[in-house]
């Protein structure tokens, strides 16, 4: 809380209850929600808050790097309360985003190699992995299994 207050002060932002609620919500969820999902979670506590305020707050928090905007090509952003470098897995079936923190991934050495080869200075990097999550795989396997049982009993 004190740390959040300091960060708000440092960025010359007013610490409003709504801003704090959105930031806390994002810091305590692993789900990488959309603005709409954030709105639905915040609304019961702040019934007067509008979706427009949520969007504006998210923009502001992202600008001062208190949160991250993730663009996975869905046409809208997803939001992340974790601002340190980490990678993401996106499920193409259920649109779930999971954090991937495999420290054995040689991302820093890839960055160094790219800087050397391209002569560009890379300030930040992240990796997106796309596929089908474990839950969806299990569900699909079950569907196929049930279909197979049905066909076998025909
Ligand atoms: Zn899935
Ligand atoms: Zn994340």
Characterization of this structure:
The chain has 154 residues and is an alpha+beta fold. The protein has two domains: 1-83, Orthogonal Bundle (Arc Repressor Mutant, subunit A); 85-154, Ferric-uptake regulator, C-terminal dimerisarion domain (Dna Ligase, domain 1). 47% of the residues lie in helices and 12% in strands. The chain contains six helices and five strands. The protein has helices spanning 2-10, 17-27, 35-42, 51-63, 107-118, 134-152; strands at 68-70, 78-80, 87-91, 97-100, 128-131. The strands form two sheets. The protein has a three-stranded mixed sheet with strand order 4-3-5, with no helix packed on it. A hairpin with a 5-residue loop joins strand 3 and strand 4. Helix 3 packs across helix 4. The chain starts with a helix and ends with a helix. The model has no long low-confidence stretch (mean pLDDT 90). The structure holds zinc ion (ZN) (2 copies).
Number of strands: 5
Distance between the termini: 62 Å
Write out the distinct hetero groups bound to the structure. Answer: zinc ion
| Strand residue content | 5-15%
Which quaternary structure do these chains form? single chain
Mean pLDDT across residues:
90
Q: What does the overall shape look like?
A: flat
